[in-house]
Design brief:
With 139 residues, the chain is of the alpha+beta class. Helices cover 14% and strands 33% of the residues. The protein contains 2 helices and 7 strands; from the N terminus they run H-E-E-H-E-E-E-E-E. The protein has helices at 2-17, 70-73, and strands at 37-43, 52-59, 80-85, 97-105, 111-119, 128-131, 135-137. A hairpin with an 8-residue loop joins strand 5 (111-119) and strand 6 (128-131). The model is unreliable at 18-23 (pLDDT under 50).
Length: 139
């Protein structure tokens, strides 16, 4: 009986002394209600949106393929795609990561890529475009 009481006492002390971790290491912040998306357009040399196949976005820091939800990729403008949005802000770092965007022009088979730098992270309210083009132009 004494051994059981001693073990229970030690377990209670251990649990009581165990440091509870804060679920968030982030500083307090006030975020807006907006939902941000980063778009890229594939165009021909005349600036007209073109149909693209084999579209992909790869985080160059992690090698991870970033896929947007199906609903986000449904656009009314030909050749325009959602690169990343706020729902995926944890897939990029707070300092910013380079995302390689690639697509192949269906009519000619020409493949083009561009690099866009985007920041986010677990503590960010929104994604932020740091640098890179808004359009990828096929010859």
């Amino acid at each position: 009986m004494y051994k059981i009481a001693y073990v229970l006492f030690c377990a209670i002390v251990f649990i009581a002394c165990h440091k509870k971790e804060d679920p968030s290491d982030c500083e307090p912040r006030v975020c807006t209600e907006e939902f941000r998306s980063l778009l890229i357009s594939f165009t021909d040399k005349d600036g007209k949106g073109v149909a693209v196949k084999d579209y992909s976005v790869i985080n160059m820091s992690t090698g991870e393929l970033i896929k947007t939800p199906v609903v986000a990729s449904l656009t009314l403008v030909a050749g325009t795609f959602v690169v990343i949005d706020d729902s995926q802000r944890r897939k990029v770092s707070a300092a910013g990561d380079e995302l390689k965007i690639t697509g192949t022009y269906q009519a000619t088979g020409q493949t083009k890529s561009a690099i866009v730098k985007v920041s986010g992270g677990k503590c960010a309210c929104h994604i932020e475009k740091i640098s890179g083009p808004e359009k990828i132009v096929f010859d």
